Amino acid sequence: MSRPPLGGLLSGEPRVIAAGVDVLADALAQQAVPVDRVDWRPPPPGTEDALATVLGDPAHAEADARATGRMLTARPHLVDVRPAHEVLGLRPGDFLHAGPPLDLDRASGPMRGALIGAMLLEGLAETPEEAEKALARGAATLEPCHHHGAVGPMAGVVSPSMWMLVVEDAEHGGTAYCSLNEGLGKVLRYGAYGPEVIERLGWMGAVLGPALAGAVRRHGPLDLTAVMAQALQMGDELHNRNRAATSLLLRELAADLVEAGTEAGTAGGAAQALRFAAGNDHFFLNFAMAAAKCATDAARGVPGSGLVVAMARNGTDFGIQVSGTGDRWFTGPAGVPDGLYLGSYGPGDANPDIGDSAITETAGMGGFALAAAPAIVRFVGGEVPDAIAATRRMYEITMAEHPALQIPLLGFRGTPVGIDVTRVVRTGILPVIDTGIAGREAGTGQVGAGLVEPPGGIFTDALHALAENG
């Protein structure tokens, strides 16, 4: 069989791929030459030996496959709603917070504001000034939500009287918890603590929590993956856009809310709960967070695996945990999100990134599923092509595609899932997270929403730890 002459290579239109060389790509584009750009940078200096050690270990690929398989086969089900003092054993003065461990003297404005609000809610202080003084005296103990199998959005402060979603993994047996969503604006999780904030939290404890508990117990275990899979096909990405998921949840629980309330003689409370949830498009976010925590926790503790099982921010530090390195945190400075601001607020009012809600990205949702939610750009900024490109970029640093969470716009391709430390370091591509923006000053509340990336050095640190463990 004859082969075409070498000159045949030049007889058709050239296809140019530019890997991390913008000068070349820009010059070709100016000459109307089609060019495919690949976002690639060489690995940071000093990582070559660590990469060789980890990737050269014959057990590494098997460990990654095992950890990823456990994450993808998790089956999170909502089974109950109960107070934090019952399910987490919190006592008066015990508070959980978002992100890696944090001392009060390094706490940001919104974290301090949320702690002040929690002190007021729990009756440990009468005024914000008293709360601040009590906190300074050490009246409260602070521990990360993640250390208790829990997650909390933004400041993520959990106090004993707050009601928690209880989500169990029907496949692997783990349990995860998350608080209830307050809505947007001036809310505790964004660091606000005014009277309206405390009043709302009191109502959530007295009415919303018990109403949801009655509905869930009457309904029986609710498959959250099924809800999330449908919501993705209806335009959600399950971090900053949860409109479809919230509607699907209410459709599933509405009758049980009414019937449970009627039986308990609290039909008015059931109606209030329905109105509150229906008026809060972010209501499902906390359910998605608990489901994601269930899935990522199932992948923990696999020796040799570079799978990221937690990304979390406390308003000061951004931290990750990796399957093969146990409970160790790898931390760096949290960055300020780039996005859209509310009213007269601007970047100068923004606090560095905060919250456990990046657990959604860790499990293949949120920023990793932006292509499923084109309308999200109206909330976080950018254009629709940017959202699609962001999801496509995440396939470069992940180990798998989610079998249940699929993106219609990409031909029902599964969302990219399973962040791989080695791929992040090798490519220089960082995970994309879409997030809310908290005001820098305590008591401000939400000032905007946007996109943010982790500091690259924490992945390099995790890689070196993997190499040392190996």
TrEMBL record:
Record lineage: Bacteria, Bacillati, Actinomycetota, Actinomycetes, Streptosporangiales
Pfam families for this protein: AllG (PF06545)
UniProt-recorded name of the protein: DUF1116 domain-containing protein
Matches recorded under InterPro entries: AllG-like, OXTCase_su_AllG_h-dom
